[in-house]
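Reopening this one. Same input as before:
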Amino acid sequence: MKTRILLIVILSIIVLPAVSQKVQMPGRDDIADCPVINFLETEYNFGTFKTGSEAIHYFVFTNGGSKPLVISNVRTSCGCAVPEWPKIPVGSGVKDSLKVEYNTKIKGAFDKTISVYTNDSRGMIELRIKGNVVKSK
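Same output, byte for byte:
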């Protein structure tokens, strides 16, 4: 019986401080003092087009925050879409774009994601491109 009580006391000493700690969420002031990437659109549909056509889209964005925005990386869900993005910080209130080019040698319908990694408080924003490539005559 004494062993059980001792065990409960020891576990309480170890577990309670860990459980009672509050998770610190960024306050409104912290978020207001961050870069914020605002895309005009997060999805683009190329529609139907023929193989060998040009399939390029520019996702336009603005840094709506008060600090410079840094796009650290952009990844696509396949090698069929190639992204290009600004490699230097985008100032507060500045508009820029992220270019995505789809390989039109691949026939068929597609629905691909583009993951944009930034120093925005959200960390990653997902964009999407869709379309259908048909055989040229």
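So the earlier flakiness isn't reproducible anymore. For the record, The two ends are 87 Å apart (CA to CA).
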